[in-house]
Sequence to fold (282 residues):
Amino acid sequence: MDGTSLSAAGSSQRQAVERAVTEAFGDRYELGQVYEQPCVGTACTNVVFTLLSRDNGQSEAFSNGSLSWPDKKHLNVLLDDSDRPSVMGYPVTGAKAPLTEQEAYKIAQQYMREHYRWAKDAVEHKTYPVGEKAELGWMTSWRWLHDDVLMPRMLDVQVNRAGRVSQVAVTLGPTRVKLEKAKLDAGQAEEVVREGLVAQYQANGGGDLSKRQLQARYQVEAFTLKAAERDGTWRPEWLANVSMRPEEPGADSLEPGEAEMWRVDAVNGQVYDGTDTPVKAD
Fold:
């Protein structure tokens, strides 16, 4: 997102945020500043906002969130991102500090049942640590698959070491859509991404870069097929992580957060870069 182009949110945007926050957390937090913020490189807008603590002794505490606009399909709220849980974490009924992945899942499941009960019908769910030793707790993800393609609807709930919800990400959308059959497999999608990287490098004045040089510099991994809506039509797209290779032999692997997500239309091979902008390859 572009942090230099914030503008005051309208009343309808603020009301939409209030409804989304109430669904997620009831009246636990007070809504603070709300701004409209365009995305970078693609035609979308997010309404970004702060949540304030209602605790009289912690009135300076706050968290950040965003809601996609005007579709209101994507809500993300980061309540607490520290290994020292704060007052901003959302308490779940009957929850105690979890010691294991399974205990964290039970807390996330209870939160889901209280706020997003529709996620109980998800095809699969998984819980995994956040941080090398779960310093930031555990994330539970609920997903829908149809014909081995990831569907748009998703829910992610992070529970911190104190047993409170520290992050929520909600993506609304269908749990089943009709798609053309994919023509590209994962390996072919990775090859198309490499071609897109070369084309983008040349278009940005970087000179000639061969695929071999690029392969030595970047790691490309296509890891799942997902349904994506473009111009009113649902398409199967490969999601591919693009990241720089470690500079030194034996160096630590790059953190997942340092990878950039590219997309490849699995039918016609069109590539979209990390900002979801179409990339033209020769």
